[in-house]
Amino acid sequence: MTEAQLPPRARVAVAAGKLTGAVSRAAGRGSGAVVGGRVALRLDPELLRRLTAGRSCVLISATNGKTTTTRLAAEALRAKGQVASNALGANMPAGITAAMASDRTAQFAVIEVDEKYLPGVAEQTAPAAIALLNLSRDQLDRAAETRMLAQRWRDGLAGTAATVIANADDPLVVWAAGRVERVVWVAVGQSWKDDAWSCPQCGGVLHLEQDDWGCGSCDLRRPKPEWSLDGTELVAPDDTRVALTGLRLPGRANRANAVSAAAVAAVFGVEPGVAIGRMEHVTAVAGRYDTVSYRGRTLRLLLAKNPAGWLETFDLVAPLTRPDGQAPVPVLLSVNALSADGTDTSWLWDVDYTRLAGHKVLVIGQRRLDLAVRLQVAGVEFEVFDTVEAAVDAAPAGEIEVIANYTAFQQLRQKVGG
């Protein structure tokens, strides 16, 4: 809906939101998207509905991977036309509204949505497609338990007219999509399985065998996928295979994200090869995977916010045995527990830090001592530093892998220029 088509109240709300965002940016308080969106929605609670009316909307939600998959799906859909997206990850209603207000002419809207807000945003935007990637424990002091989130999705998406693209390898996602009429099942693997030991449908024991699973007490089973990830290839419903080796985002998790994004784009008629070809131009997502120079060293910035995310990120860290004969890459870890992270750091005990054994591990961040205790119990040698400067200067020569949770990641980006 163009500005001229908006009712007067909505036009005032959009203008007020933009002004508030500009003031916030000028004051150095961030991008201003969230506060601007809040002001706009306060003036017109129906603004998101108005701003997405007439667009083909895609919603993408998950505990992990939603920002990257949103970026990849948006790039793929640009093969069909203009795309509006909340590419920087402001994924609650205020941030989404601000993103839609900033581009009112795009034919498509690809929207990342926080798991908790998915049903409400779906009701406001009447999406053509919804991607459900995964559910796992996250921010235990303020986020709902995974079964509760799955129930919220199941109830909120029941009867939706959208095509739902869902991860067949996640039992919680499969159950959440159980009342949806049209589901496209995607098999992309599920490395983290610790939130799916019991059946979300009946409470019975789930039997897990590699990526296959089923309940021993009811009929909940892994559905037959239409799309899949096979090593470094995408397998489409017609058995067409597309190589993913040209993707510039690293790791198995990003190959999985690309397959899900291609399945989303296919709903709108984008061929898999075309979709993947466009995704190959994406080199970083909101600073994730950026490589920067700092104090004469090369740092790669990786974001990991919860146990499942850390597990996938560890796969990206260079192995202990390197073909060039160099020592293992040092790893710098930073953990905060601010409001945006969740203040409960008990999730650290769910992460298998023994996978870092043999690397030089450097620890910084607001909760560096919490992390130090966890590493000590895991038997991983480490050093604690008060600043990133001191940690970088103490690291062995060569590249440094930097892994941080949400606010620690943002602070590091500001500091090192990522």
Summary of the model, kept short:
The protein is of the alpha/beta class. The chain is built from 14 helices and 17 strands.
Protein described:
- It is a single chain.
- By secondary structure, this protein is an alpha/beta fold.
- The protein is 35% helix and 17% strand.
- It has a nine-stranded mixed sheet with strand order 2-3-1-4-5-6-9-10-11, with helices on both faces.
Please report the number of helical segments.
Answer: 14
Helix content: 25-40%
Q: What's the overall geometry?
A: globular
Low-pLDDT segments, ≥5 res = none
**How many β-strands, per DSSP?**
17
Query: Between the first and last Cα atoms, what is the distance in angstroms?
Result: 35 Å
Category from helices, strands and their pairing: alpha/beta
Cα gyration radius (Å): 22 Å
Topology readout:
Blueprint: H1 8-26, H2 33-43, H3 47-52, E1 56-61, H4 66-77, E2 83-85, H5 93-102, E3 108-112, H6 118-125, E4 129-132, H7 146-157, E5 163-167, H8 171-176, E6 183-187, E7 206-209, E8 212-215, E9 227-230, E10 233-235, E11 241-243, H9 252-267, H10 272-279, E12 291-294, E13 297-303, H11 307-314, E14 331-334, E15 361-364, H12 368-378, E16 382-384, H13 388-394, E17 400-404, H14 406-416
Parallel strand pairs: 1-3, 1-4, 2-3, 4-5, 5-6, 6-9, 13-17, 14-15, 14-17, 15-16
Antiparallel strand pairs: 7-8, 9-10, 10-11, 12-13
Helix pairs in contact: 1-2, 2-5, 4-9, 4-10, 6-7, 9-10
